[in-house]
Design brief:
six-stranded antiparallel beta sheet
Length: 247
């Protein structure tokens, strides 16, 4: 049993290697995992048998497979929060003219499970990932302000800086959460990526804890000029979703 568990962990570690790279060779995977090339090759071959990775005929390197995409699409389609939220997010994009995101907490990160882009936001959003440290995002702060366990996970991990504007201390973090609770939402300027601003509001569960967040994203200068208006829009969208059972 222990060997099976270790094999599963190793296979998952291989898939994680592709989170930031479109293609990787056997040597690169071996280096990232700290294992021999032969071990990396066996893992990639096994994952390839099940369609979770595939080998590019042009480069000979490996990339994520279509079966993994298929499973991901099934997971998204069966996610009740996303299903319920999509019409609200579409309306929010229409009203704001900005890109809209739905985020959930994961460890000390936020994971964006949906992103509806506008022409204004396309170039900007290519520079941000689907997963970001919570303390660098308005979504993360909106959730942490109303989710003590998530906030504590952020404190335990610490506050690595992504830009000069990123908050870096527990004191700054707690001060920001207090401000977020005061206005019921969060605004961020340049903290995850320079030039990108956002605002977010929490989606509350039945006990009042934050389960997710809705955010608007666009150029920083847009939020500096009209952040208050956009925050009102996300607060209204989040309030709508908080009234619907999503779990």
């Amino acid at each position: 049993m222990a060997e099976i568990i270790q094999s599963v962990r190793s296979a998952l570690a291989v898939l994680d290697c592709f989170a930031d790279e479109e293609e990787l060779g056997v040597t690169e995977v071996a280096q990232r995992l700290g294992v021999a090339k032969s071990s990396a090759h066996r893992l990639l071959t096994s994952l390839g048998t099940h369609g979770l990775v595939e080998r590019s005929p042009e480069s000979g390197r490996y990339r994520l497979g279509m079966h993994l995409y298929e499973l991901g699409q099934l997971a998204m389609a069966r996610n009740r929060l996303r299903t319920v939220a999509l019409p609200v997010l579409a309306d929010l994009r229409q009203r704001s003219g900005l890109s809209v995101q739905l985020a959930v907490p994961d460890g000390a990160d936020v994971l964006y499970t949906e992103r509806l882009e506008t022409t204004l936001g396309v170039a900007l959003m290519r520079r941000t990932g689907r997963r970001l440290p919570a303390h660098t995002t308005s979504s993360g702060k909106a959730i942490a302000a109303y989710n003590p366990a998530f906030a504590e996970a952020c404190r335990r991990r610490g506050f690595a800086a992504r830009t000069p504007a990123t908050l870096r201390t527990v004191e700054e973090f707690d001060r920001t959460l207090a401000e977020t609770r005061r206005r019921h939402g969060a605004i961020s300027f340049d903290e995850a990526t320079m030039g990108i601003g956002s605002c977010a509001a929490p989606i509350h569960g039945p006990a009042g804890e934050a389960l997710a967040a809705v955010s608007l994203v666009g150029p920083t200068e847009v939020f500096r000029a009209r952040g208050g208006r956009y925050l009102k829009l996300v607060l209204a969208a989040a309030a709508t979703l908080s009234r619907v059972p999503v779990v």
